[in-house]
Amino acid sequence: MPRLTGGQALVQALMREGVETLFGLPGVQLDWAYDALYEERDRLTVYHTRHEQATAYMADGYARTTGKIGACMVVPGPGVLNASAALATAYACSSPVLCVAGQIPSATIDKGYGMLHEVHDQRAVMASFTKWVGRADTPTALPGVVREAFRQLRTGRPRPVGIEVPADMLQMTADVTLLDPATVERSAGDPDLLRQAATLLRTAARPLIYSGGGVLSAGASDALRAVAELLEAPVVMSLDGRGALSDRHYLAQTGLSGMHLLPHADVVLAVGTRFFQPAIAWGLPPGAQVVRIDIDPDEITRHGAPAIGIVGDAKGALAALRDLLDGMPHRPSREAELLAAKQEAAARLGAIQPQAAYSAAIRAAVPDDGILVADLTQVSFFATLGYPVYAPRTLIGPGYQGTLGSGFATALGVQVGNPGKKVVALMGDGGFLYNVQELATMRQQHLDVVAIVFNDNAYGNVKRTQREDFAGHVIAADLANPDFVALAASFGIRGIRVHEPDALHGALGEALSANEPVLIEVTVGEMPSAWHLVGPGGGAYPVLWPS
Ligand SMILES: Cc1ncc(C[n+]2csc(CCOP(=O)(O)OP(=O)(O)O)c2C)c(N)n1
Question: From the CB of 244, is ligand 1 less than 6 Å away?
């Protein structure tokens, strides 16, 4: 039984769970933990940032694109609160992020003495954006708390998890028994229900699959494609679920075509999804039978009881369905009909300019396995539906949290997790300045992200709404900006300025082959709304709903 400080016990426990990368920002309550990280610096790499929000965004980007657990470590109080928007984003996107939070000394917690970084009931603060929060009240408790945190991260629905450790417990020495990770099994679901679902799908005339982010996080893409091909069923991917099936496949559909295909479906198989679009925004066709597969039992009945509800892992459940359907009679191909649906959607998208041209310019420069991280700029709104996605986990956004400013730091974490891949962050001048200081992190840690900043000197999306819907009452929406190219240079980063889509294509191609961090500023004017595609009319986000 080794004699360890709490800090050492924490770091050893994290390493036993496979943590090799940690995003953090130190401070006095965490000194003993960071000293333990120093001792293990050859086996566990720490990426430090210039603001805590970036630690959690980086952990989220890392987690969502690698399938591993993303870990961050921040001081209590303001550190946790600074990280909270990113943790809420990870929660919205069902992302397995561990936040290790410092805590003030044990004897002072919740006493109101005004200790440095004290906030009342920090665990309650964290509870609103995590699925579980644990505290280690002794160094010997640390391995058990860490093991439970990882069990939570690896079972059920992936969501952020928190651990807090009081400063004195990180310093105290004790005989600590380190633990092996808990064994976890992911059930494919009830075999009887899976058989019933296979029977219903086999006899369906026009089945449709609605696929969400759960398919990506479960790594279920191959099984999804096999089931879809056996059934000749279109796969309508939610905004968080894009990339589960390559957009090159005729069965792959976005919500834009999906909303027109849904009314003709007699059986809908919904996998790993909140099912918001079909159930609420578009409405299910009368008489359609719904089969739901989800690891989270609450999702299965959120919009009423389905014909068949299967609590299970998307990968195991889809693989079971594939095996049950295998050998079923060949169905007539729907290729012509479904390609026509895609073309009709593409024509509607193509009319939205200049967003369509910019999105196409980016797609043409980014390799199939390159990863686009979309912040909240207007080209990003467009890209959520209009940017073709060819591989799982290659389009990352903030999900229903719509967190302006998430894109840049998330992309840095994506790059850490995917060193061989091209990573592009897509932002506006508004969103970029939320995290502009992480240009220093990008430079210092050699993260070869290409940051594209669309500069319209405004919170453009808001400004257009104010002009169009509020009689030109523009308020709090114009922005005074730095010279972005000079700003990049001041951080030691190459900056390029372009003014139109072809030039962006050229600059992006050049930047991606340079293998260095690059900022590309794209000067733009006002853009027309793509909101009818993704907003209430297009029914992608639960915006101000119900009206
Ligand atoms: C945290 C947060 N605050 C505010 C908003 C509201 N919001 C949505 S888009 C937007 C403007 C974005 O401006 P910019 O990043 O410059 O992109 P543009 O619209 O100009 O393309 C704002 C303020 C939000 N989504 N998230």
Answer: no
The DSSP bridge pattern shows strands 3-5 and 173-175 to be antiparallel
Which of 459, 478, 531 for mutating ligand 1's site (highest number of atoms within 8 Å of CB)? 459
Contact 31, 8 (CB under 8 A): no
Residue 273 Cβ < 6 Å to ligand 1: no
SS3 content of the chain, % helix, strand, coil (to 5): 45, 15, 40
Closest C-alpha to 71, from 146, 124, 172, 144: 146
Name the band, by pLDDT with cuts 50, 70 and 90, for residue 174. very high
In angstroms, the CA 306 to CA 329 distance is 26
Measured distance CA(429)–CA(122) in Å, rounded: 33
pLDDT single digits (tens) 280-310: 889 999 999 999 999 999 999 999 999 999 9
Strand 395-396, strand 423-428: pairing: unpaired
Nearest CA to ligand 1 atom 12: 459
Distance CA 544, CA 547 (A): 6
Written as six digits, the tokens of 4 are 């360890």
Instruction: Indicate whether residue 313 lines ligand 1 (CB < 6 A).
Output: no
Contact yes or no for 2/178 (Cβ under 8 A): yes
Tokens of 88: 């809420």
pLDDT of residue 546: 43
Q: Tokens at residue 286, please?
A: 């009368």
For residues 325-340, b (16+ Cβ closer than 10 Å) or e, as one string?
beeeeeeeebeeebee
Q: How far apart are CA 540 and CA 277, in angstroms?
A: 6
Q: Which amino acid is at 523?
A: T
Distance (Å) from CA 547 to ligand 1 centroid? 22
Does residue 402 line the site of ligand 1, with CB under 6 A? yes
Given CA atoms 10, 12, 17, 21 in this order, what sign does their dihedral have? positive
| 6 Rama class: left (phi>0) / alpha (psi -120 to 50) / beta | alpha
How is residue 538 written in tokens?
């297009």
Distance from Cα 436 to the centre of ligand 1, integer Å: 15
